[in-house]
Amino acid sequence: MKTRYGMVIDVDRCTGCGACMVACAAENNVPPGSPRVTPRTGITPMLVHKVSNGADGEGRREAFLPVTCMQCEHETPCVSVCPQQAVQLDPATGIVMQMPQRCLGCRYCMTACPYHARYFNWWDPAWPQGMEKSLNPGVAVRMRGVVEKCNLCHARLHAAQEKAAAAGKREINPHDYVPACVEACPTRAITFGNLADEKDPASQAARSPEAFRLLARLGTEPKVYYRSTRPWVRALAEPDTGRKEVQHG
Amino acid sequence: MKLTRRDLLTLGGGVTTGLLFTPVPWKLLDDTSIWTQNWPWIPQPARGPVEVKNSFCALCPNGCGMRVRLAAGWPVGVSGMPHHPVNQGALCPLGFGAHQLNWHPRRLRQVRHHGRASSWTEALGAFRKACAAGPVAIIDGYPGRAASSLFQSFSRRHGSYGVTLCAEERALGPYETWSGVPATALGYDLENTATIVSFGAPLLDGWSAPGRFTRLWSERSAGVTNPQLRLIQVEASQSRTAACAWRWVSIAPGSEAALAAGLARALHEEHRASENVPMPPTTLAEAATRSGLSEDAIRELARTMVARGPVLAIAAAPEPAVAALNIVLGAVGARGGIVRRRQHAESYASADSVKGPFRAVLIDSSVPGEFALRTDAEVFRFAAWEDPAVHADWWLPAPGFLEEPSDIPAAPASSIETYALAVALASPPPEVRSAAQFLAQVNPSLASVEKVIHERCQQLFAARTGHLHREQSTAVANLKSAEALEKEFRSGAVWMGDPPRTGGVRCQLREWPAQQAMDAPHAATWTGGWIPAVLPPLATKLYQESSLREPPARSEI
Lengths: 249, 557
What we know:
The complex is a heterodimer of chains A (249) and B (557). Chain A has 249 residues and is α+β, with helices and mostly antiparallel strands.
């Protein structure tokens, strides 16, 4: 069966707690920010934005919009511009892979990404003394000068594939491969799965009439979907059609 | 042929231009970049066998169940325990980075006396001297543990015992006053409630155990126009909970008690009050003036509240008017309301009410940093992380995250009685001792924490009630021995008591309580009122690398 991993984020269920952000950083050995770090220079492969309908007083409504790499399927912008072939769309899984070993640090991909979902390592990765013992052995630490982004916790996919292979199976058990942000969400707002499988809950959620994608008009076919019953939240998907205010995280 | 300066310059220019059309400079640039990016001091993850073990977080009294991934014997990742009956696989954001806390630069690794390095021998000598000279006080921030019972045993001989309760338990204080049932035995039966009116309680932002209400809200309320669970948030500003609530009622700051009285009056006037409780002296007009709502809006809110029962009002702080409103609503001692989860429970003296004069005050590491006791006594403060803003004569290094075994009593305000054992999964630094170990050295007749845990397991086995939760649930009555029960606990099982009985709490209220100013709501840090001295370094993702939250004022990342 064809596999296209993706996720559906239910914006109505997101409370903006930030557990996905911390769990993502811990899983992927993202270093804590330096004292000088800002939202502009930090590394947050999963970043929750606070958005509002732009009204004031009791009419004001707020929501939280987790933004990560959208895993664009069609003419993936970052793949198109990378001079080093450090970004590739995995034909087997649909995951847009970032290979820091090949990255030159030119940051073309950051410019090309319409979602600002890529981050540059401005500093050497550093943890307080001794804390390197707490790093996840399944993920290599990225060096200064390279770009990184969400790989849908590719190390977990490798572990699931190894487990399946050890059991003599070709297909992984879907329960063995769940990205850290999906696992961490206390409200189960993120549904992850194979979008190419019509029976998969994620695929079904993506086909809901309340599902939408950010900047879908660009035609990059992102594999991260959102869902909301609130029209003003759905209007956020296309910035020129109704959004009044967005506070960037 | 004569070689001129012009020839040399031409040659140099030609070579430089030519090189630009070869791969050499670009390869050099690339290699230089790679060399300078791979310095030997860049940390590499530890290698070794990887395993997953169950344990529980003891950083705050919610005691969330965790699955801890270990590599080469060190915790390298934390995730929620899916089979935990209360937190159901959820953790707070700080919990996901808690395994890095033990290496925080502010980790206390040595006994310090007035800022100078000292030793356990000197600290023990000073404490023994104080015990001999007069009474001492012991302050506990996480009552109900085996260590707490040792503190109480010690205090019975040497002085007093006081506790600092978290915000959720303090908010249950008025029910304790009116019913005599200790606040630590009471809980909110959220699972069976249809309408919740929250007076500023951050129900979706760090209130009680992380997964408890958020899961309920997510399954029964989120994104639905007519939800199964209605959450009405009464709050002056649009907090995270207000943003996600079914309905947000914006009121004037500090007018929660007036609005609660107004709602009670509206229910009385419309004969919707379910019990014979006194009419509040506050008129609807007064409540309207103070809250900023109109009289009609208060009446409409009262009708909406009772339209779908059971209904429960929850305050952020001890607010007698909100508690009295619950009596009017018939929510006390009823299904979906305030229930008694435990029949036998102690009433603890508040740490603030522990009166001296004392010769020494010993503060356990479970006491939050913001607790400050005004005393002239010598203060012995156990802590895993130093907090320069807190006064202590002696700073005594205590075990950090997952560095000591502990039992985990029920989460504050939980309607279900639970019990579990947190096993130690990390090695503490050599200089570290817990307060219980310290007191056992002062008084050798004191039992050890392990022994008390063993006795508690035997008592649970003898009672033969409740179920053990792991991947599958097992009745305690089906276990063969107390040792088998303890073994299950050590592998991550959670004991869950029988569901609470209704009618276990009866409040006597002769007159409507006088209005008082509510405590300031705590900062939303996902730790409730439990503001830690330090935060996991990855908290920079929340507080610095995004504008999602304001950093807590007194915690260091």
